[in-house]
């Protein structure tokens, strides 16, 4: 390898160009200049640092510099003095050394505000080195420190302000002037003890309620009634200026006391605001001064408050003009005897005793007394009296009269209304319970009987014709009961279509049965409503005291048990309570208790009654029928427990279980290849109202993996007459699922044919009740023909149920009915039995 010349190597190591010595000199000069500039910058930085420290330490409040995690990076002299700690004990430590009560995540809201460019303000308690605490208001702001985000926090000591606030509150509490603070919206925020005393607000009472402006009437010195905006406090709020001393009269509408106050109102502003945030009213009671001037008498008249003054030594009574007018006296001066003569005889002694106590013991009094006007009409007056404070002998009394006749009449009206059912004007539930309690507590009247009356078929009328017609039926039924009972018992509307009659039995043991018979006879004539006639009867239960109960609720409960038994046996009758009925009631309660747990205990099962083609006998569907077996009660028939489940609401859970179980069984049949087109499930009216039925059905179908047309839902006619948006929405939702909808036992109720046209109904079920007399009973034949005609005209399917004879089957075939079910074909079968029945009986015309 050839060597490079030595000069070339030196040239590479040096700087390009000629004259290496010159270049070194220039470099040293530049380095010197840079060093001088750096020293100047450091000196300027030191000046700025000293200036910052001087400013930092000059701030009279503690100032801290924190990093993102809350570590104290710096602290000024005021902070070191305030916390009474050396700087080294604070800097480098977390802020919680100064604020030990702060929560762990206390910086999160601070950073949230600072990141938005805001300033975070909070009141906290700081701690000194000796453990003592002091309140501070901390203002925090963010700043950039060489690319790092820091917090500067200024803490202002609030100790002196808190001490001033305490002294201010103490002054408010002990001053003998009333002080009231209202917010800008008029709400009362504070009243000191003097205000409570002057305004006579009971201890513990609500200031908002007691000082509500609609509880007072307010007058100026000339007797003019003022509205809210004319009051000094509202004027100060509105104008933002002081409302100087004003004398106003305040009449408390509840106590009827009139007091006169001298009021000054001062608006109070929040920092930086130009509208008052609240108003402070300072007032004193000047009622005593107003008594001595004539304007007082005039305003008393305007407020319908009469004044009086009595000198016990002279027996002389002075009356203001309003008091004179109120009592109907001819002059303003009278004797105490003349004043007492205005009262009813039974009230005079009460008034005399109150006057005596007031004179002898200095006791004030307030009482409501009944009087008689000069025209003979009854008068109620409220009399307030107290010793004259300026009279050292204590023999002068002063006070007011207030005519409270209208108030008393209104109270009596309210008392009657509180005890009266507004529809029938009979006693209501509370009133009859009170009356029955009084009779049972009085040994001379404790031999009583209770008749519990319930109207039969009332709900049908109410559902078909509406609540207005239902109210007319209730009112008419009440009048019939009143005519039947007359003066032999108390009558009450106990609720809904239920009535109570309470009668004495001591003088006439047969009275309860006789009154029951009279009431049933009164219901013999039909009720006429909306151009229609309805037969409404009554079921009555009778219970007697003391053998059937010595307490109102127990006696009524036993009468209800007897009524229920009467309704169950045969409506339009009466039934005495007995121990056997009590046992039945206990059994019903036991049944309801077990019924409530039956779903959870898996005590239900389903059987399926085949639905067949009447011509061929081919099974095309099945209706799910519920069965219940309980270890305690044994096997329970549906007609024994379904009604109870309806009443208690348990039918909703039971119905949901039936729906899910039937869908799952239909899935199993399809998996087995059985030719069953659909399964029918009954839906309770309570179930229809109590849940989102369309959603429940959709979930049951989806869980079983079935299409909608594999399920048929059977409703009673009651669903049809519920013309509510929810009803229409539910039917529409079921229709969208593809579920078949039919009306069970069609024709048994008040069929609303219009709804068959409006609602998406697929079919009707002809009730077994109408098939019983077919084909020989002409009425049953006519009804079956009518129902079949309706179905054909509307294009609806028709299934006949309860077919028990071949004659019935042949009649239905001739009528055009294609599908039926009943004991002629099969009772309710287990799923396995139904599968065997299908396998053994291929479609034939064996019954044709």
From TrEMBL:
Q: Per its UniProt record, what SUPFAM superfamilies does this chain match?
A: EAL domain-like, Nucleotide cyclase, PYP-like sensor domain (PAS domain)
The protein's name is: EAL domain-containing protein
Task: List, for all copies, the residue spans of the domain called EAL.
Answer: 588-842
Record-annotated GGDEF domain positions: 446-579
Q: Which NCBIfam families match?
A: GGDEF (TIGR00254), sensory_box (TIGR00229)
Q: Name one GO biological process term.
A: regulation of DNA-templated transcription
Q: Does the keyword Coiled coil apply?
A: yes
Q: Which domain of life is it from?
A: Bacteria
The signal sequence is none
Q: Which residues form the PAC domain?
A: 120-170, 365-416
Q: What PANTHER family does this protein map onto?
A: BIOFILM ARCHITECTURE MAINTENANCE PROTEIN MBAA, DIGUANYLATE CYCLASE DGCP
Q: Which residues does UniProt call coiled coil?
A: 24-51
Please give the Pfam families that the UniProt record associates with this protein.
EAL, GGDEF, PAS, PAS_8, PAS_9
What organism does the record attribute this protein to?
Answer: Noviluteimonas gilva
Q: Which UniProt keywords apply?
A: Coiled coil
């Amino acid at each position: 390898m050839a060597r490079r010349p030595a000069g070339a190597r030196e040239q590479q190591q040096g700087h390009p160009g000629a004259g290496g010595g010159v270049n070194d000199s220039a470099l040293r000069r530049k380095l010197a200049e840079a060093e001088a500039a750096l020293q100047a910058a450091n000196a300027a930085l030191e000046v700025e640092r000293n200036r910052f420290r001087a400013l930092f330490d000059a701030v009279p409040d503690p100032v801290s510099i924190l990093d993102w995690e809350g570590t104290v990076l710096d602290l000024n002299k005021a902070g070191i003095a305030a916390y009474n700690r050396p700087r080294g004990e604070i800097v480098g430590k977390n802020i919680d050394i100064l604020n030990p009560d702060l929560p762990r995540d206390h910086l999160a809201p601070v950073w949230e505000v600072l990141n938005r460019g805001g300033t975070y303000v909070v009141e906290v308690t700081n701690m000194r080195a000796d453990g003592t605490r002091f309140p501070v208001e901390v203002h925090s702001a963010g700043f950039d420190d060489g690319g790092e985000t820091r917090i500067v926090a200024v803490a202002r000591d609030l100790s002196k302000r808190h001490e001033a606030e305490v002294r201010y509150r103490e002054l408010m509490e002990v001053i003998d002037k009333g002080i009231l603070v209202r917010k800008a919206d008029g709400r009362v925020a504070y009243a000191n003890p003097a205000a409570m005393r002057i305004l006579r607000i009971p201890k513990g009472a609500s200031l908002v309620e007691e000082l509500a402006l609609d509880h007072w009437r307010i007058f100026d010195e000339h007797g003019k009634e003022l509205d809210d905006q004319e009051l000094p406090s509202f004027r100060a709020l509105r104008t933002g200026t002081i409302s100087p001393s004003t004398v106003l009269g305040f009449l408390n509408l509840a106590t009827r006391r009139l007091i006169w106050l001298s009021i000054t109102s001062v608006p109070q502003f929040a920092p930086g605001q130009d509208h008052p945030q609240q108003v402070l009213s300072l007032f004193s009671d000047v009622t005593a001064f107003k008594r001595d001037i004539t304007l007082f008498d005039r305003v008393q008249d305007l407020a319908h408050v009469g004044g009086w003054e009595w000198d016990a030594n002279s027996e002389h009574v002075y009356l203001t003009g309003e008091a004179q007018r109120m009592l109907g006296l001819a002059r303003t001066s009278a004797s105490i005897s003349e004043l007492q003569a205005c009262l009813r005889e039974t009230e005079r002694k009460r008034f005399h005793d109150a006057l005596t106590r007031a004179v002898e013991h200095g006791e004030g009094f307030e009482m409501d007394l009944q009087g008689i006007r000069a025209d003979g009409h009854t008068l109620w007056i409220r009399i307030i009296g107290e010793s004259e404070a300026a009279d050292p002998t204590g023999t002068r009394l002063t006070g007011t009269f207030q005519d409270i006749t209208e108030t008393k009449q209104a109270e009596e009206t309210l008392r009657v209304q509180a005890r009266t059912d507004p529809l029938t004007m009979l006693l209501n539930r509370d009133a009859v319970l009170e009356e029955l309690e009084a009779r049972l507590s009085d040994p001379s009247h404790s031999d009583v009987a209770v008749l519990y009356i319930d109207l039969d078929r009332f709900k049908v009328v109410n559902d078909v014709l509406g609540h207005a017609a239902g109210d007319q039926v209730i009112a008419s039924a009440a009048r019939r009961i009143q005519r039947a009972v007359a003066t032999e018992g108390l009558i009450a509307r106990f609720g809904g279509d239920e009535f109570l009659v309470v009668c004495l039995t001591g003088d006439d043991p047969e009275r309860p049965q006789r009154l029951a018979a009279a009431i049933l006879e009164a219901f013999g004539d039909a009720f006429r409503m909306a151009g229609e006639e309805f037969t409404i009867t009554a079921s009555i239960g009778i219970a007697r005291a003391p053998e059937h109960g010595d307490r109102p609720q127990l006696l009524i409960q036993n009468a209800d048990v007897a009524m229920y038994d009467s309704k169950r046996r045969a409506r339009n009758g009466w039934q005495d309570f007995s121990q056997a009925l009590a046992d039945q009631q206990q059994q019903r309660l036991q049944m309801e208790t077990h019924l409530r747990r039956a779903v959870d205990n898996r005590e239900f099962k389903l059987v399926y009654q085949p639905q067949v083609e009447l011509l061929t006998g081919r099974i095309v569907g099945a209706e799910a029928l519920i069965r219940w077996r309980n270890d305690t009660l044994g096997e329970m028939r549906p007609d024994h427990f379904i009604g109870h489940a309806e009443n208690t609401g348990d039918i909703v859970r039971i119905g949901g279980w039936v729906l899910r179980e039937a869908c799952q069984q239909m899935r199993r049949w399809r998996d087995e290849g059985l030719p069953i087109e659909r399964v029918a499930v009954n839906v309770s009216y309570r179930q229809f109202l109590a849940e989102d039925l369309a959603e429940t059905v959709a979930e049951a179908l989806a869980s079983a993996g079935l299409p909608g047309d594999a399920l048929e839902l059977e409703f009673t006619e009651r669903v049809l007459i519920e013309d509510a948006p929810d009803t229409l929405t539910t039917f529409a939702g079921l229709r969208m699922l593809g579920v078949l909808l039919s009306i069970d036992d069609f024709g048994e109720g008040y069929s609303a044919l219009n709804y068959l046209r409006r609602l998406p109904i697929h079919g009707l079920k002809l009730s077994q009740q109408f098939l019983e007399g077919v084909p020989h009973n002409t009425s049953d034949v006519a009804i079956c023909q009518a129902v079949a005609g309706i179905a054909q005209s509307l294009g609806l399917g028709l299934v006949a149920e309860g077919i028990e004879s071949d004659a019935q089957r042949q009649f239905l075939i001739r009528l055009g009915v294609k599908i039926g079910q009943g004991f002629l074909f099969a009772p309710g079968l287990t799923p396995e039995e139904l599968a065997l029945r299908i396998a053994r009986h291929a479609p034939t015309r064996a019954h044709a």
